[in-house]
Design goal:
Number of helices: 16
Helix content: 25-40%
Distance between the termini: 59 Å
Radius of gyration: 29 Å
Number of strands: 25
CATH topology of one domain: Oligo-1,6-glucosidase, domain 2
CATH architecture of one domain: Alpha-Beta Complex
Structural class: alpha/beta
CATH superfamily of one domain: Oligo-1,6-glucosidase, Domain 2
Strand content: 15-25%
Amino acid sequence: MLKAVGITVGVVAVLGLIAGLITWGVLASRGPPPPDPPELIPLDWWQHCVLYQIYPRSFKDSDGDGIGDLQGIISELEHFVDAGVDAIWMSPIFKSPMVDFGYDISDFYDIHDEYGTMEDFQELLEKAHELGLKVLLDFVPNHASNESEYFIKSEARDPEYEDFLVWADGLPDPDNESNILPPSNWVSQFGGSAWEWSEKREQYYLHQFAIQQADFNFRKQAVKDEMINIMRFWLDKGADGFRVDALPYLIEADPADHGGRYPDDPLSGRTEFESHQLGYTIPLYTKDLIELYDVVCEWRDFADEYLEEYGGDTRVLFSEGYANVSMTMLYYGLGGNLNGAHFPFNFDFITDLSRDSTAPDFVYIILRWLTYMPYGGVPNWVFGNHDNNRMPTRFRDNMVDGLNSLNMLLPGVAVTYQGEEIGMKDGYVSWEDTVDVEACNRGDEDTYHLYSRDPARTPYHWNNSTSAGFSTSEDTWLPVAEDYVTLNLAQQKIDDRSHYKVYQALTQLRKEETLSHGEYDIRALSERTLFLVRSLSTHDTLVLLFNVSEDSDTIDLGRVTHLTLPATVYVASIHSARNSGAVIENSELTLQSGEALVLRAPPV
């Protein structure tokens, strides 16, 4: 009996050992258990948003006067939802004589009558918020219209406003005793002296832009306080934040530091410019002065305090700042702190890249921003705006989808200028039709096109009806581009493949955590082709391949980091021979000129 029990126990032990070995073998053949998904920190609403810039005058006209308006925007709010946009930013909608089409504000507390009423604005806010859209306003603190109360009262030496603007005595003309010269040699951004004489006050006032745009004096606390009052007014209305315009020019040299007078800017030495032309001087005393960043930090303090006081979602400040990379990064904050703007707009794709740029050029420009950006900062990518030629015009038509893919797959905020989602190009605007103050001031019938911003501002192409569906009037404030008959949103919605459908696929893809939280790697595979990899543990790897050149290119996918074949085409540029869902199995791949592929591959 005992012997039998012993045999039985032995058999059970052996069988248990065998079973254990079998189980271990099965587990070993499966490999280690998969890692737990990474714990991801939730992002604030703005940190990975798609931000869409509306140029209100050209977006949609609701009343047939040929000028876009707020009711027009309201009527098309669903477009942003369909396109996958998270937030809209409107170029200035405030009361203005429209010398610079809204950037010369005469009343910072009211809506321009051509655009609508305060009730229209409140309706826009309400409906946008119902649709889950944030609404940002364009804030222009550097200057005000010479028709504003600020200018009128300052020119009249009203004690409360006497020093609200930058005023200075003229200098005696050594060649003519009866003549008075401007206080310094500063040149306006629109050409000519940056100083204008006031007969009433018998002094010059500073205007870094048009004569009708008088600069505020930010060395006065009353001016700083007024800017806070303006921002509070619109935040109280329900706005979600501001894009802040023309910040590099906010503060000029202090005469107290230069013997009581405004110093001359040094000469550039560029002989192709005359003394009245932009480029004749180096703006040492008129641009990027370090004191302006203190003002931006004060505004950020206000925005943060407003959030703490009233709750809700973050009210944001996005700053404009065409400057070198070091000065631009200071907008994020001073002393290594993120206590400035939530981000400064990144214009590098506009200023430093073009149709002639190589893949290494693209990679360098992208990595430069990411390298200089302070730790914890949020990057952003801008491919066009109302001041520069449109994206397909600066680059090439066949690059539209690749550029939009870069915008959507890079980390941070993707900024879209009105029309980029359908690949709108510059419209032709004749000298007779030109209304841009910069073109009129700096050019003539032969040269205006070198300066005109009008071609990037022509009306949006909704469909192929009268005035591209922008207006019921054939007489629009700027002529509609002639290609609207074939290049319009309605057509692209029904086409099997279109820029708009690619754009929609890309904004849908941005909802994946690989893009919101993943690592990035971007490199040039050749002079012609780059890759961008976004990867996140346990999540699919996403890869953009983009041939930026005018020629085809054969590449080796074995050199693309984290890419495991086979991979599936998520979306392809409309000129590609490959369709969504196609499987890429071979490491050798040929891309045509401008072709872009977004691939989905297994997790790293």
